[in-house]
Design goal:
The complex is a heterodimer of chains A (324) and B (99). By secondary structure, chain A is of the alpha/beta class. Helix content of chain A is 52%, strand content 9%. With 99 residues, chain B is mainly α. Chain B is built from seven helices and no strands. The radius of gyration of chain B is 12 Å and the shape is globular. Classes of the chains: A alpha/beta (324), B mainly alpha (99).
């Protein structure tokens, strides 16, 4: 039996409505990556993580559990799970990621801070108060719950006097930049991806990396937000020879990640097709979305060495081990 | 086969649902990374014709769409395919799943 679609959407939506995230994690775990960075809380310009990089290790652990349930007799119990989940956060028991994976995803956020500091950008952070954007619930078509949540996020920004938001991933960028304004009439925030912010600053690298890397564009950056030249410019200036796979740029081939919450096997099959295209172009790859990163890395199985773009950029543009 | 001419009005929430702009060329089907043969042209046709049963028989397909917009990037008729799929999900969430 496949995962029951209605009940699974119900659990994800209940979580957003009751616990502010599709996969709730504690404020300590969500903001722990920033503890030694001395970022001010709030301010006119903030870095908004949307909890995406922090959530991925938990989503990966949850998805492993889901894969075991999918097509087994256990799938029939998800209905009961939904009732239980209203009272107890069941994902806290099902999604236990490895420390190493959490550390690797946290490092991506640290590297983004290092890059922005290197570019002379000043910004704050909302720490444990930061909220998930609601992207998955929007994609699943639960617009009423999504709208209520979007308003909550917007009011939180207003409470801290935020005017400009720097995002770190394509899904949160798309929500805050293009989707929220269609739900919130008075919406007045300026939103930019950190890649756009860095590209504007015309940074000079500390080290030239001198390697070939195949680029995997995020569907959302490429087709919804037009973020195409920025990653290429930043990588090229870092001394990277950017190789294009089949289906690149505006016509990038989806990693399959958006199917993960309901159909993990379909997501994996799609990622496998994309890895085949990537490995024909080069042995090192770069992604710019946490969903693409985890999904493709799982499918790559050591055939392609993938890194998030922030890792390459920090290596090139930041002095070794610099925090400031 | 039951046909309900009011079905499209039941589904669409605004003029954003522009399935009628589809000219049935099949580019969307050809480029779909998931190889979804049904989406979006046949599915939208079912909605426009009011063949509700056919739409509801294909719930898994509707939720399998990645919303990656590869079809939209190639669509010569500028159909807002991803938004139309989301509209169908909204309808199914309310009417079928009672969410």
């Amino acid at each position: 039996m496949p995962l029951p679609t209605g009940e699974t959407i119900g659990i994800l939506t209940d979580n957003l409505r009751i616990r502010n995230s599709v996969l709730p994690i504690s404020a300590k775990k969500a903001a722990g990556w920033a503890k030694s960075l001395d970022l001010p809380k709030g301010g006119e310009t903030i870095l908004y993580t949307g909890l995406m990089y922090q959530l991925i290790p938990y989503i990966a652990a949850m998805s492993k559990a889901q894969e075991k349930i999918e097509d087994s007799w256990l799938a029939g119990f998800i209905k009961i799970g939904r009732y239980l989940n209203k009272a107890i956060n069941i994902s806290a028991f099902m999604a236990v990621p490895s420390k190493n994976m959490r550390a690797a995803y946290n490092q991506i956020l640290v590297d983004i801070v290092r890059l922005l500091r290197r570019a002379g950008v000043g910004f704050g952070y909302l720490y444990g108060e930061e909220l998930y954007s609601g992207a998955l619930v929007y994609d699943l078509g639960m617009d009423d719950v999504f709208e209520a949540h979007a308003r909550k996020v917007y009011h939180l920004f207003k409470k801290y006097g935020v005017k400009k938001v720097i995002t770190v991933d394509p899904h949160s960028t798309n929500m805050l930049k293009s989707v929220y304004p269609s739900f919130i009439k008075e919406y007045d925030l300026e939103v930019k991806s950190y890649l756009e912010v860095l590209a504007e600053r015309n940074l000079e690298p500390e080290n030239k990396l001198g390697m070939e890397v195949v680029i995997h564009d995020s569907c959302v950056y490429a087709r919804a937000e037009g973020v195409l030249s920025e990653p290429r410019t930043l990588l090229a200036k870092a001394g990277i020879i950017v190789k294009e796979p089949a289906d690149a740029g505006k016509f990038t081939f989806c990693c399959g990640g958006p199917a993960e919450s309901l159909f993990p096997k379909k997501a994996a099959a799609n990622a496998g097709k994309r890895v085949e295209q990537i490995k024909k172009a080069a042995k090192n790859g770069v992604t710019m979305c946490p969903v693409c990163f985890v999904n493709l890395q799982k499918a790559a199985g050591g055939e392609v060495f993938l890194k998030d773009i922030s890792s390459y950029l920090a290596e090139a543009y930041c002095a070794k081990n610099s925090i400031v | 086969m039951l046909v309900n001419p009011d079905f499209v009005d039941e589904v669409k929430r605004s003029e954003e649902f522009n399935a009628s702009a589809c000219m049935n060329c099949g580019v969307c089907t050809a480029v779909c990374p998931m190889g979804i043969e049904l989406l979006p042209r046949k599915l939208f046709r079912y909605v426009l014709l009011g063949i509700k049963d056919r739409v509801l028989e294909n719930v898994e397909t509707i939720y399998s769409c990645l919303l990656c917009r590869m079809c939209e990037a190639n669509c010569p008729a500028k159909v807002r395919i991803a938004e139309n799929v989301r509209t169908l999900r909204y309808y199914i969430n309310k009417k079928v799943f009672k969410l």
